[in-house]
Specification:
Layout (H helix, E strand, L loop, with lengths): L1 H7 L6 H14 L12 H8 L3 H13 L3 E4 L3 E4 L4 E4 L6 H7 L4 E12 L14 E11 L2 E11 L16 H8 L4 E9 L3 H7 L7 E10 L2 E11 L3 E4 L5
Parallel strand pairs: 3-10
Antiparallel strand pairs: 1-2, 4-5, 5-6, 6-9, 7-8, 8-9
Helix pairs in contact: 2-4
């Protein structure tokens, strides 16, 4: 690490910025992986000959930027790098994950039929009196990235509960049965419930992004889905033009 830092010394930047550059390079190159502890401030002081104040500032700023996280009394660790998901398009999360060269895994939490009045959010009469509900957690290289809770119009998709959603996704199956013609969605910041935090393997105090989407095929509402992303692992992105 000392030799790597010495290679940056020729750049006309403050020492804390040079250290940030070195640590960022180690993270982005994969030399340090998510969850791995980084050297302590004392260790870096001895190895690099920098002041404790300089090292503390670099660590503090990288923590604020989401590259590192601190656990009081334990140490500083590499944060789980945020994975992008589509905001303006309806994409298959398995395709998004594999496109990054990662491995997608689905955990099926629940598959059941419920009455419309038992839905976890207001649906109106759009989905009819019979509703299928599925809850899945999609993982990126084993780390939970998205909790998907979906309500499906059972009258037009009668075989939904028969599908193996560990080998395909609800998005793919529904898109095959009922091609999407339009949709609406809203995004908000929320705190997870205790159950949701357990399923996503996060602290209940961690903020999450929630996307609520309704999709139609022709004039028929096919499904409503609530997608929950841990704030430390995922981000929503999209593009538009005029």
């Amino acid at each position: 690490m000392s030799q790597e830092f010495a290679d940056y010394r020729g750049e006309a930047l403050p020492a804390y910025k040079l250290l940030k550059k070195l640590l960022t390079q180690r993270i982005s190159s994969g030399a340090w992986s998510s969850g791995e502890p980084v050297p302590s401030e004392n260790e870096m002081t001895q190895a690099l000959g920098l002041s404790r104040m300089t090292i503390n500032r670099a660590i503090r700023e990288l923590t604020a930027e989401g590259l590192l996280y601190r656990t009081q009394g334990v140490g500083t660790f590499v944060a789980q790098q945020k994975s992008p998901s589509a905001l303006f398009e309806v994409k298959n999360i398995a395709d998004e994950i594999t496109a990054r060269g990662h491995t997608h895994l689905s955990r099926v939490i629940r598959l059941e039929e419920i009455e419309a009045g038992q839905a976890p959010w207001p649906t109106g009469e759009a989905l009819g009196s019979r509703v299928f509900r599925s809850v899945l957690v999609h993982c990126d290289n084993g780390a939970p990235l998205q909790r998907e809770e979906r309500l499906v119009n059972a009258e037009v998709t009668p075989h939904y509960l028969d599908q193996d959603f560990t080998s395909t996704t609800p998005n793919v199956y529904l898109g095959t049965c009922h091609p999407i013609t339009r949709g609406t969605h809203t995004v908000e910041a929320v705190l997870p419930s205790t159950q949701q935090a357990q399923e996503l393997e996060i602290d209940p105090a961690e903020p999450c992004l929630k996307l609520l989407r309704t999709t139609w095929s022709g004039d028929t509402v096919i499904s409503q889905v609530a997608l929950l992303y841990p704030g430390s692992r995922g981000r929503l992105e999209g593009s538009f033009g005029i």
